Amino acid sequence: MDLYTLNIENWKARYSSLIESNTLPMLCVGADETQVSLCWHAPKETASAQVELSVNEDMTDSRLFEGRVTEAENDFQSVCRVNITGLKENTVYYYRWNTGNGWSNAEKYETKSFTSHKALVIGDIQIIQIEDGDNSAQISESNYWNNILENALANNPDIACLLSPGDNTNTGKTAEEWQSFLMPPSLRSLPQALAIGNHDKKGTTYRYYTNMPNEFYGKGFFGLDRDFWFRYGDVLYLVFDSTSGSAPDHIAMAKEAVGKNRDAKWRIGLIHHGIYGAGDCIGDKETEILLNAIFTPIFESFDLDLVITGHTHSQGRSHFMKKRKIVGRAESGKTYTDPEGIVYINANSVCGKVVMDYEADYLAYAFMENDVTTYTTLEYKGNQLILETRRGDSGALLDSITLERTKAHNENSAANKLRRVAYNPIKFAGWAYNKITKLLTK
């Protein structure tokens, strides 16, 4: 992938040419590695959910995929969503979409290996909104986001998808935030899986700009609430909306995802709030009591290997955790075979919002680093999962750890079944909490 870092003056020109169109597409992960999906805005009167896919740059011998057109958040556009299927590994494709004013230019998308792959973790991208007509901060932040992303991809050309633990926008209310988020050219060829964060939840625009697979709306979710899951090779990703306290829905989604993918070698969780995050999560009652009570039993009883979080704008990686305790050390540079407990990665943030005043001696963490925006890669290779965290500017390695799995997951052990039975009071409390929240927000 060609490096596309731009200085601020060149980025201003790109920003000015794109910010008002509100038509940049989002490439999203598919239900499995043979699929991706697309979501874009088009003029209301001419919107048509069509995508052409070809192995030829001139789009000859293309296949046509059609999807659905739904309402947009404004009166003059519609939202188009299309799922692309039948992809083969290690193959260069070209695709274009119906803009409503003709076909777009062809974009390149190269699939990676289906038996091994690498995922990129960048958190709290949180592009700021335009304030009182002044877009200078949005320009500089979107430029910084582009350059961080491009540096990560230049150092890791084998990345198959982007995992974001939420707060993709700052207010969740404006099209300009999403257009700025989507401006990096590399996002035309990098499928994304975006968790919902509390900043995204300030508005409703997430629902109009994404097309995530296996979205799970449950029985108690309302408004923007949703979980989703997807499979890539031997990896099952479970993405939870931690802004919702509906415990029955969260455990139902996990049960569905795990039940349909029991053969997956790795189980990875993705949520916004940093359950073991440094900074304002330490001692925070919402995190310590509510979020921990809802999510930790799900992660542990379904035998997850790794959980990715954000929210605190502080980078860290935990030791092996179980029942709020360290059950094994996880030192940088070492390999651990079939460890007990779960590793938690807390991503910091893009756009200069890293938090410096965390408690550096927080005992859950084996590694913490926060003087620069960072990114983490997850490399799945045979029986190994290699985690590396690097500086976003130079790519210098800050932390690494390798997990090795030789045993099958055992979510149906007597202890895990008992934990899920013991979870019933939490399900009831979560149901009640969600009902009260719904009434208060009417």
Question: Keywords for this structure?
Answer:
single chain; 442 residues; alpha+beta; Immunoglobulin-like; Purple Acid Phosphatase, chain A, domain 2; 2 domains
Structure description:
- The chain folds into two domains: 34-110, Sandwich (Immunoglobulin-like); 117-404, Metallo-dependent phosphatases (Purple Acid Phosphatase, chain A, domain 2, 4-Layer Sandwich), CATH 3.60.21.10.
- Helix content is 22%, strand content 27%.
- By secondary structure, the protein is α+β, with helices and mostly antiparallel strands.
- It has eight helices and 24 strands.
- Strands 11-10-9-22-23-24-19 form a seven-stranded mixed beta sheet, covered by helices on one side. A seven-stranded mixed beta sheet has the order 12-13-14-15-20-16-21, with helices on one face.
- A hairpin with a 6-residue loop joins strand 1 and strand 2 (36-43).
- The longest helix is centred in the first third of the chain and has 20 residues, at 136-155.
Number of individual domains: 2
Percent in helix: 10-25%
Q: What's the quaternary structure here? A: single chain
CATH topology of the largest domain: Purple Acid Phosphatase, chain A, domain 2
